[in-house]
Structure formats: C-alpha cells, structure tokens
Amino acid sequence: MQIEIDKDLCCGAGTCTLVAPDVFDQDDEDGTVILLDAAPGDEHRSAVEEAALRCPMAVITVG
Amino acid sequence: MTQSRESDHPLTTRPFPTARPSGCPFDPPAPFAEARQECPVSPLRYPDGHIGHLITGLRSARAVLGDTRFSSLPPGKRSPVKVPGSELSTDVLPPGMFVNMDPPEHTRYRRLLSKHFTIRRVRELRPRIQEMTDRLLDEMEGKGGPVDLVEAFAKPLPTLVTSELLGLPEENRAQFGHHVDVLFSLSSSGEEMQESMTLLGGMLHALIAAARKDQGPDILGRLTVETDLTDEELLGITFVLLIAGLETTTNMLGLGTYALLRHPEQLAALRADWSLMDGAVEELLRYLSVVQIGPIRVAAEDFEFEGRPIRKGEVVTVSLPAANRDPLGFDDPDAFDIRRGATRHLAFGSGPHQCMGHHLARLELSIGYESLLRRFPGLELAVPAEEIGLREMMVTYGVLGLPVRW
C-alpha cells in the first residue's frame, strides 16, 4: 500500500490521526497531517482507507 | 429570473421546515426524507423569494461542503432562516469571522488556531474536564433530584471547558451564555440580536485587552503572544470559538441523555459495557445531528452540480440531520443503534470548514455521558416524555429542559 497526501490542502482536522494513529500524525504547530509511514503494511489498510474516506478535504490517496 | 425558475420547480412552495414529526423528537422534519427521495439536491424557496437549493443526501452534502465553488460568505438577506448575522449588515465582514470566509483568507486563520485543537492538545485536557464534570455531578447529587439536567450539567460543562480554554472570567460566563442564546434563537428580533451583538462585542473587547496584558496560558493569551492578529481579528475569532464551543456541546449533552433514556435497551447495553461509549458518541452525533440549519453556502459562479444548474448568488442549505439519515449512507438510518459503527456521519460537517473542535467535543461528550450515567445508575425522566420541550425554533436543536431524578 502506497499513501500520498496533499499537505497544502490539509485543513488540520486530525481525523486521520484519530482513525489511523500508526500511519498519520498531526503537526503541533498548525494541526496539518504528518505522514509517518508512506508504505504501511496491509494490517493498516482498513484504517487508512477509513481515514482517506473521512478526511474532510480528501487529501489522502491510497494506492 | 426568479419567476421562471419557480415555474420550473413546483416543489418550491415550502419554506425551510423546522417542525419535528409529532411524537418523534429525534427524527428530522418529515419533508426532508420526502425531498431526499425525490432528489438529494432539491429546489427550496428562501424567505427573500429566490429559489435556491436544499441538500438532503449524504454524498451530495459531502460534495457541496468540499467544493469551494460553494462560498461560505454570509448569505445575508438570502438566508433560509433568520440566523446570527442574517439580520445584520453584511456589507463588511468582521475580521476574524473565519467561518464566513473562503480560502485562502480562511486557511490563514485556521492554521493559526488548529494547534490549540489537535488530538494531542485535546487529550491533555482529559483530567481537567473530568475534574470539572465530577464537580458538577457532586453539586447535582448534593442538591438531590429532580433537577433540570440542562441547567445543572449540559450548559455548565461546555461553558466551564470553553471559558477555561479561552480565558473567560467567571463573572462574565452567564452573560455570554445569555447573548449566545439570543443570537441563536430563531424567534429573537433583529433589535434583540443587534443589542446582544453590541454587548457581547464590548465584553469581548475588554477580554482581549486583558489577555494582551496578562499573556496567560489560555488560547487568547497565546494568540496575543504568538501571532500578529489584531484586536478586531481576535474579537471575531473569540466570537466564533465561543459560539462553536457552547451551543453544540450543550445540546448534544442534553438531547443525547434524553435519547439514551428513551432507548432503554441501548442504555442498558452501554451500562453493561462502557467500551461501547465511543461508538455511542458517534451514533448520538449522527442520530441527533443538532446543527439543524446549515451549513449554508452561496454559489460563487454559475455551474452544474449533480445535474442541476446552479446560478451565482443562489443559496444552498445543507441539512445535516437529513444527510445523516440517508439510507444510502446508513442501513436502517432511523434506528438508534450504538453498535452500528456510525463513523462516516457529517455531524461536524466536512470540507475546509469542518468543525475544528471535533476532538474536544467528542471528549466532552464521552466524559459527560459516562460520568453522568455512572454516577446515577437509576437516572430517569422526572416528567412524562411528552412534557419535554424541544428547541425547534433554534439553529441548534436540543431539549429546552430535561427534568431528571435518580
């Protein structure tokens, strides 16, 4: 699984960090997404897909 | 132009519905389901006479809220109902009122504020919120039932949390709450709204002056030190945070407790397994969707959206209660089921304006419900259910009062 994010578009809601904390984190300065692992194992797939779906700005692409 | 559009759509004779179906206080107004069945994007007559749009489908609602061709600038006189600002002059948008801004202006404010609402920051607040909650429950228990849960708990908890976060002095809190109530009541007159806006503005000015001097650890204090925001901008920001922090959480606590008491089998399941609490909070957010009017958007250009022509200036109102009951998004959507895993709801909106305080709201709600239910194992309504008054005429839905005993 390959993950791409568009950090410029991120609104800092932190939903991804709530749903998939092993893969995403939130910047302490502006709340925007930090991608911890751009190629996580398949055990994270459902959480990452959920994060992508719930992202209010749809900035997460899962390949 | 309005005339010709009107004749195109015979459905547009109804104004924005707010009355709940009789005997079903948790269900959205009946015309929403009807409108959604016809089309998730329907024509709607607005009080100024123009025919705009109503969004009742989950997918369409998410699409509108994420599409910047739908502007967040205030609709002014084109608003679907009278809301704060709709009766006031909208010629000049007050600085800092970022809820009514579009990117990139909106983005700048959002980036400056988000650090105070990250998951990490919010989790640090847990012990303090628990302490405030326990203190309120001690007072309630000491007083003995029956008490109005709204006055004893649902109002004071978010007020304490928001006030401490922002740095609001204790002596002003009741007045702040009162003015927010006036601004959010659909039955307030334009004069009453203007008066509350003016008084609130004066109080906030004094608060900001004090924050500049004290440079405390609260959000206002931090913003005066860490940013170059002007006093006028801080006033707008404080106003937004205050309103966002008080109304919604208060009504979720009150109406949510009422919903749990009215669904005894769900309440029993929760009491038997507190690990269901996070799911229960999500389901209550979905099922109740207390923001019952809006988000409201204004088309910034002419374009086609989901097969319907949208013209610049037309107003689009999203119904979150309707979207969160969309059968295409949730199985058996009108059932209240704390085990359904209802995470993909839009109770906090979506897009660039999605609620910035959603982590805080979830934390306040889960601590609030669980502490209340654990403290009073025999919690029940102190009056017949039919006597519970509902906030049908408010922007934020909820109970007017909730007399309980234990």
Topology (elements, then pairings):
The complex is a heterodimer of chains A (63) and B (406).
Chain A: E1 3-5, H1 15-19, E2 24-26, E3 33-35, H2 45-54, E4 60-62
Chain B: H1 2-8, H2 30-38, E1 41-45, E2 51-55, H3 58-65, E3 70-71, H4 105-114, H5 119-124, H6 126-143, E4 147-148, H7 149-154, H8 156-166, H9 173-184, H10 190-214, H11 219-226, H12 231-262, H13 264-272, H14 277-288, E5 296-299, E6 303-305, E7 308-310, E8 315-318, H15 320-323, H16 358-375, E9 380-381, E10 403-405
Pfam family, one (chain A): Fer4_13
Cofactor (chain A): [3Fe-4S] cluster
Domain 4Fe-4S ferredoxin-type (chain A): 1-29
Commentary on this structure:
- Chain B: It comes from Streptomyces klenkii.
- Chain B: Keywords: Heme, Iron, Metal-binding, Monooxygenase, Oxidoreductase.
- Chain B: Belongs to the cytochrome P450 family.
- The complex is a heterodimer of chains A (63) and B (406).
- In chain A, strands 1-4 form a two-stranded antiparallel sheet. Chain A has a two-stranded antiparallel sheet with strand order 2-3.
- Chain A is 24% helix and 19% strand.
- In chain A, 37% of the residues are buried.
- The model of chain A has no long low-confidence stretch (mean pLDDT 94).
- Chain A contains 2 helices and 4 strands; from the N terminus they run E-H-E-E-H-E.
- By secondary structure, chain A is an alpha+beta fold.
- Chain B is of the alpha+beta class and 406 residues long.
- Chain B has one domain (2-378, 387-394): Orthogonal Bundle (Cytochrome p450), CATH 1.10.630.
- Chain B contains 16 helices and 10 strands.
- The longest helix of chain B is centred in the middle third of the chain and has 32 residues, at 231-262.
- The relative contact order of chain B is 0.18.
